[in-house]
Amino acid sequence: MEDVQMxxxxxxxxxxxxxxxxxxxxxxxxxxxxxxxxxxxRARPFASSCFISLAHGTPxxxxxxxxIYTEPPRxxxxxxxxxxxxxxxxxxxxxxxxxxxxxxxxPHDTLFIIHHVVTLFVLxxxxxxxxxxxxxxxxxxxxxEITSPCQNSWSIAKAxxxxxxxxxxxxxxxxxxxYAFYSVVRGILAPIFVYDLVAFYASGLAEDSIxxxxxxxxxxxxxxxxxxxxxxxxxxxxxxxxxxSSDAEKKAS
Length: 253
Fold this sequence. Notes:
- The protein is mostly helical.
- It has helices at residues 2-11, 17-35, 43-69, 82-105, 110-129, 134-145, 148-160, 165-202, 212-252.
- Residues 42-245 form the TLC domain.
């Protein structure tokens, strides 16, 4: 009987935060020392960060969707399931590695460092402090990471557009499509979901399970992140329009 239990636990092994951390570290080192070794001193770490973001974004989206829909319907204050906790650990490991990346290579990029710190606060308090509320956080994780393939390939192409014609062509092709997709997800779907989240917490239904200061801090982080995302994509739309106008003027002349 003991052998059966040991075999069961062996085959049901779930990766831990430490395992995910080491995995993302190896992916980062592979990108930095092999894939982008011939890139410049600034482009090399930037591209390595984009690469681990790619390695996180789509898997995190798929894992979160599975964790959400393989369980019975749950509320925003329900206890975290084992699958949901695994996704939280997966994303925590990624943000820890990327935070270290920014502290080492881009310590003056305050906005990204703050973003990663507050995101880690949400993930860690949800996973280890209250052990509740993962359902809502994972839905927002899906909305945040579903644009990851477009965003990171766009970022790498933008970094190389001045030295690689193919990268510039891809950047110009992808930009309006990426901006449109990003605008719908971050500018429409995410705010609607956060509104529902705030309405639930404000109703007092979570008071007995999640401390008020915790969910209030989550809402502030989520709302601020969405606002910054909207400002970011609006600025990119303006830049795209200026470039289109400049191209039109050159053709006319």
